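user: can you give me the structure for this one chain? tokens are fine.
assistant: on it. calling the predictor now.
[tool input]
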Amino acid sequence: MPSESQPLHWLLSSDEPWTRYRTLVDLLDLPESAPEVGSARVAMLAHPQVKELIAAAATWPGGPLKRHNDASHVLHKLCVLADMGIRASDPGMTEVIQAVMAHVSSDGAPLSLLNIAPAFGGSGQDTWTWMMCDAPSVLYALLLLHEGVSSTPSLSRSAPLAQLPQQTDSLHDACPANLHPTLASAANYLSNLAFDNGWHCTAAPEVGKFRGPGRRSDACPIASVLMLKALARVPAFSSTAGIRSGIETLLGHWQNSQIARGVPIGLAARPDVSTAKPYLFGCGSDYRKLKYPFIWYDILHVLEALSPYPSVHSDPRFQGMLAAVISQADADGRYTAGAMYRSWKGWSFADKKRPSPWLTFLVRRIQRRLANTSAQSMSGETHR
């Protein structure tokens, strides 16, 4: 069993400045004004791989998105930049943000350039529109990129949200005044598309006959993951009914998959969650492999989406997923990718042979959120 400081020391000595930067801020709670934080951030912005991502983001929309798990698409590069802590005010990002925010639906949803094949009910033409497997990712990236810029506060990425208050169905005027109005409108609109079993494979009306896999009443696991992750950046939205239903759908999916595999978890099967594997979404061996960027439905992505919400931390289903990840650590508490996207070859998180500082950091931050919840419970404090 490695000591608590052993993995931290390894992260801080990493040659990845984005890992050092986020470790200092998210795991050690150092302020942005700390000299070592500033040095890591400067090194991150100067790093060739980060500059390459910013240059790619500057090509937005970067061609039409034809499948949402296309890891090479500029949308996912924008999300990685946001995960690292790049800001809208950083060199080269102002033009990127302007390009991304130039296309918004009349309802407030951020748009992407999509090309939906006629076989799936689309026109086969490049169209500015939105679906629930792209709009939440655009919103998530924009929310993070705006944090710490101008009057927008920089929220902790390791402190859990406040405990969910009484359920509400509407958030009219609930967004903080310092949130960019375009982002507030998008968050409000997308959050209100939730059903009693989370978010579905919903798309803009102009998409026409398109529908995702399964029945129209089925929840879409990846849509719920992406929405939970995005709304965690707007604490005012933690009271929505969609948050609760999305969380329960993801936990219930894991619960029933474990029962189907004969794994005892001390809970009965959820009758309101199908015991059949949702089409395209399972919790088998591929699901359990550590993988980044956060693009599709896999265990680390689900934990990243759920862990900001303290109501899940003591849930045996969440703990079971976390245990499945922690069991993959090596003797020194480091984590190695179990699967990778080939378009990200050259990054440590896309190396299945050597431990990845970034993957290790991501797991440690999830664990940190749980530790912060326990500390707050003992002290009676609640952080937003």
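assistant: here you go. The chain has a mean pLDDT of 88. The chain has one domain: 5-377.
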